[in-house]
Amino acid sequence: MTTDIILAGFGGQGILFTGKILAYCGLMGGKELSWLPSYGPEMRGGTANCSVCISDEPIGSPLVANPDILIAMNGPSYNKFIDAVKPGGLVLVDSSIVDENCTRTDITYVAIPATDIASESGMNGSANMILMGRMLAETGLFDMDVVKQAMEKCIPPKRANLIEVNMKAIQMGMDTKA
């Protein structure tokens, strides 16, 4: 089985970090994986997206043209990728920022005010982890033990305090009802 994921938003929203965590989850789970980041030259404030492929078999190409899962953290990213999502796919959006309404009936569409939830919880900058948590709750792709192992690999020891914050944000996303 292969799961193709596109994460997209503005630079500085943690798109590439979230993709890296998902890739490490695949690695910790013994899966084949690819992680392909893409961002504009301005990074913060510019566009950023990341393709992650997680598979039981070798991956032929890291490019994701038709994702099974889309996480869109801004309107331009939503508009760019929504039509490419496979029928039966999952789309998660940060409804604090994305105003567009989904007209597709062949996908599961989950809108969560992730930026507002993060801000109200005193966890600014954690909207990406909240959306990832909701995605994990919807798909069961990885359990929390694997996610924590991935966090420990991706976050350097001098910033280890961020592991707990990110895990809390993921749990908040898992507990959030759309």
Rg from alpha-carbon coordinates: 15 Å
Number of strands: 6
Order of helices and strands: EHEEEHEEHHHH
CATH class: Alpha Beta
Give the CA-based shape.
Answer: globular
Strand content: 15-25%
- Count of helix runs: 6
CATH architecture: 3-Layer(aba) Sandwich
Total discrete domains = 1
The main pleated sheet reads as: 6 strands, mixed
Structural class: alpha/beta
Characterize the structure shown.
The chain is an alpha/beta fold. Helix content is 38%, strand content 22%. The chain contains 6 helices and 6 strands. The chain has helices at 15-28, 75-81, 114-120, 127-139, 144-154, 161-175, and strands at 2-10, 32-39, 47-55, 69-72, 90-94, 108-112. The chain is globular.
Summarize this entry quickly.
This protein is an alpha/beta fold and 178 residues long. It has helices at 15-28, 75-81, 114-120, 127-139, 144-154, 161-175, and strands at 2-10, 32-39, 47-55, 69-72, 90-94, 108-112.
Features:
single chain; 178 residues; alpha/beta; Pyruvate-ferredoxin Oxidoreductase, domain 3; 6 helices; 6 strands
Question: Helices and strands in order, then pairings?
Answer:
Layout: E1 2-10, H1 15-28, E2 32-39, E3 47-55, E4 69-72, H2 75-81, E5 90-94, E6 108-112, H3 114-120, H4 127-139, H5 144-154, H6 161-175
Parallel strand pairs: 1-4, 4-5, 5-6
Antiparallel strand pairs: 1-3, 2-3
Helix pairs in contact: 1-5, 3-4, 4-6
